[in-house]
């Protein structure tokens, strides 16, 4: 309610479309509490459908802008589109993993530790040579 007066569904629907389905903005336009409008929208099939349709229209608008960017060769837009819409054609980012046993993992850790220890030894022996006095 706004100031104790119930706002008609038609006005709520207009506010929802004007706000792109964002309840906070619609409530502000109607000068009503956001929680009240949210509760009202969620309890009314007609208002929920209007809010959903407003959001769908915004998605259509965003897709139109994205396709315009793609048409102009904007690489980020192209990649985004392929990652989201081109999945069935194989345009997908995924992490490839494989299982390793504890023994394989421990062996790899030991190799890496030995490699790092060898680097540390090379570094310290190089420093010792450089600090000696030359005659």
Describe the structure.
By secondary structure, the chain is mostly helical. The protein has two domains: 9-89, Arc Repressor Mutant, subunit A; 100-129. Helix content is 70%, strand content 0%. It is built from six helices and no strands. The chain has helices at residues 9-18, 23-30, 34-42, 45-71, 75-85, 102-131. Helix 1 packs across helix 2, helix 2 crosses helix 3 (34-42) and helix 4 packs across helix 5 (75-85). The longest helix is centred in the C-terminal third of the chain and has 30 residues, at 102-131. The protein is elongated and about 85 Å long. The mean pLDDT is 88.
What name does CATH use for the topology of the largest domain? Answer: Arc Repressor Mutant, subunit A
Order of helices and strands: HHHHHH
Class inferred from helices and paired strands = mainly alpha
- Strand elements, count: 0
How much of the sequence lies in strands comes to under 5%
Radius of gyration equals 31 Å
């Amino acid at each position: 309610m706004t100031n104790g007066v119930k706002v008609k569904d038609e006005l709520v629907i207009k506010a929802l479309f004007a706000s792109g389905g964002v309840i906070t903005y619609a409530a502000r336009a109607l000068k009503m509490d956001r929680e009240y409008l949210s509760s009202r929208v969620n309890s009314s099939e007609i208002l929920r459908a209007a809010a959903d349709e407003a959001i769908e229209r915004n998605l259509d608008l965003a897709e139109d802008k994205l396709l315009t960017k793609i048409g102009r060769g904007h690489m980020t837009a192209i990649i985004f589109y392929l990652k989201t819409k081109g999945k069935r054609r194989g345009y997908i980012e995924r992490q490839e993993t494989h299982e390793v046993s504890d023994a394989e993992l421990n062996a790899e850790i030991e190799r890496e530790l030995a490699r790092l220890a060898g680097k540390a030894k090379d570094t310290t022996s190089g420093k010792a040579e450089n600090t000696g006095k030359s005659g």
